[in-house]
C-alpha cells in the first residue's frame, strides 16, 4: 500500500516521504520546522500532482534523472529519487499522478507515542 509517512529528523525538523507498495521511497520533502507545515506540504503534493506544470524534470551532474514537485509559489515541495533514464522517471511521474490524491498519511510521531502508551 502506498503511503505518505511523516517523521521527525535528528535536527528536530519534520519531513515526509511517499513510499510505493514495495516500500520504496518515491518522493522526499524538504525539512519543516512545524509538523503542521509538513501536513500542508503533503496536501499540496496531493493537489499539485494533478497539474503537469508542477512537475519539474531534472538531471543531476552524474547523469541521473529525477523530478521535483513545486508549489504555487514556485518553491520545491518534494524531490524524487534518482532514475537511470528519463523513461523510468517519466513512468514514476505518471504513477505519482495516479496514487498521490488518495494516498494515506501516516504520522510516525503519533504512532510511536501510541505504541509507547500501550506498553
What this model shows, in words?
The protein has 119 residues and is α+β, with helices and mostly antiparallel strands. The protein has a single domain, classed as PH-domain like. The chain has three helices and seven strands. The protein has a seven-stranded mixed sheet. The longest helix has 14 residues. The C terminus is likely disordered.
Summarize this structure briefly.
The chain is an alpha+beta fold and 119 residues long. Helices cover 33% and strands 31% of the residues. It starts with a strand and ends with a helix.
Q: Keyphrases for this structure?
A:
7-stranded mixed β-sheet, UPF0339_domain, DUF1508, disordered C terminus, YegP-like_sf, DUF1508 domain-containing protein, 119 residues, globular, alpha+beta, PH-domain like, single chain
Order of strands in the sheet with the most strands? 4-5-6-3-2-1-7
Largest sheet, described in full? 7 strands, mixed
Broad structural category: alpha+beta
Distance between the termini: 27 Å
**Proportion of strand residues:** 25-35%
Number of domains: 1
Taking Cα atoms only, what radius of gyration do you get, to the nearest Å? 15 Å
Classify the fold: give the CATH topology. PH-domain like
Secondary-structure element pattern, one letter each: EEEHEEEHEH
Number of helices: 3
Helix content: 25-40%
Amino acid at each position: 500500500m502506498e503511503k505518505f509517512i511523516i517523521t521527525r529528523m535528528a535536527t528536530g525538523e519534520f519531513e515526509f516521504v511517499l513510499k510505493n507498495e514495495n516500500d520504496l521511497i518515491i518522493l522526499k520533502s524538504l525539512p519543516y520546522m512545524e509538523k503542521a507545515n509538513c501536513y500542508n506540504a503533503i496536501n499540496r503534493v496531493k493537489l499539485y500532482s494533478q497539474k503537469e506544470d508542477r512537475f519539474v524534470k531534472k538531471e543531476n551532474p552524474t547523469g541521473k534523472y529525477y523530478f521535483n514537485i513545486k508549489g504555487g509559489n514556485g518553491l520545491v515541495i518534494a524531490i524524487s529519487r534518482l532514475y537511470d533514464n528519463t523513461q523510468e522517471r517519466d513512468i514514476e511521474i505518471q504513477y505519482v499522478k495516479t496514487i498521490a490524491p488518495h494516498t494515506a498519511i501516516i504520522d510516525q510521531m503519533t504512532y510511536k507515542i501510541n505504541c509507547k502508551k500501550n506498553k
